[in-house]
Design a protein that fits this description.
Elements (H helix, E strand, L loop, with lengths): L10 H31 L5 H4 L5 H36 L4 H16 L2 H11 L9 H26 L3 H9 L4 H16 L1 H14 L11 H9 L3 E2 L6 E2 L4 H38 L6 H6 L1
Antiparallel strand pairs: 1-2
Helix pairs in contact: 3-4, 3-6, 3-10, 4-6, 5-6, 6-8, 6-9, 7-8, 9-11, 10-11
Length: 294
């Protein structure tokens, strides 16, 4: 089968593509092997660089940092989805004033970098007499920036739905708000689920910016551990030798694990939703007795 942008490759093209794939894999593997060799040659895999993971105090602090990251992500994700849904509906409103205000808010917070928003909430608002904890400054920044992006995602998903969906709902006597909340938004959420999950993964990684405003999340703790030379009492110190590379590897592995768990959860929800739709749409099958009677 062919389409406008791509023709099905023939036998020679398939062989050539496989060769390119093998060469690409070998190149990436060689690069990874070189990086690992250089790290091992510089002593980054020695026991002294990794012994910080053995201490209970370090493990507990690392667990609290993971919890703080998850807390900021969870609240920021929920608020961003609500923010996006509300302003997507506002941009699709029949009232021009609502559309203009919603478009202004979405474009404003989508254009401002997230780091500037966090700095503004944590360092700028105290000038006006409004004090905010690092946690709420991070969450508010995540909500406004990612919610603005999600608002455009929701708007595109709603506009991509067939017009017959809303027309049928209006024919049943539903109001504009009911059509949007009960008919259009649920379908848009299902349709745009991969894009929404991608943005939530970005939101999860954006929590790392909180260390710049002293929020005690994973990157903040990684910077602290990576800068320690010795640990423990003065009379019997334990030397960590500033394990910045091992700490970075551990923190990166934790972020990758969290993102994979989020993706797996999204895939599971998507498969479940497909099974439920298949079950609903499947017509009842006649029994053998009904077939024989016919």
């Amino acid at each position: 089968m062919s389409n406008v942008l791509f023709d099905t490759p023939g036998p020679r093209a398939r062989v050539r593509h496989r060769l390119y794939g093998v060469l690409g894999v070998l190149a990436v593997a060689g690069l990874v092997a070189f990086v690992v060799w250089r790290l091992a040659d510089s002593g980054q895999f020695t026991a002294g660089k990794w012994q910080w993971l053995q201490y209970k105090q370090v493990q507990e602090s690392l667990g609290r940092a993971v919890l703080n990251t998850v807390k900021a992500f969870a609240l920021g994700a929920v608020l961003a989805i609500v923010f996006g849904a509300v302003f997507a509906a506002g941009r699709l409103s029949e009232h021009r004033a609502v559309r203009v205000v919603s478009a202004f808010v979405v474009e404003l917070f989508r254009a401002i970098p997230l780091l500037i928003l966090m700095f503004l909430f944590y360092y700028g608002l105290p000038v006006a007499g409004i004090h905010m904890t690092p946690y709420f400054a991070v969450v508010l920044g995540l909500m406004l920036y990612n919610g603005s992006v999600l608002a455009e995602v929701f708007r595109a998903g709603i506009q991509a739905l067939p017009k017959g969906q809303s027309e049928a709902a209006y024919a049943l006597g539903m109001r504009k708000t009911q059509v949007m909340v009960l008919v259009l938004l649920p379908q848009a959420l299902r349709t745009m689920l991969p894009t929404i999950i991608s943005q939530l993964v970005v939101l999860l990684k954006d929590t790392a910016l909180g260390f710049l405003i002293t929020y005690e999340e994973l990157l903040n703790y990684a910077r602290y551990i990576g800068s320690i030379y010795s640990f423990g009492p003065v009379e019997a110190p334990v030397y960590f030798y500033r394990p910045i590379v091992p700490t970075t590897i551990v923190i990166a592995a934790i972020y990758i694990t969290l993102c994979l768990l989020l993706t797996l959860l999204a895939n599971r929800l998507q498969r479940r939703e497909r099974r439920s739709r298949k079950h609903i749409s499947a017509p009842p099958q006649p029994t053998q007795a009904e077939v024989a009677a016919a």
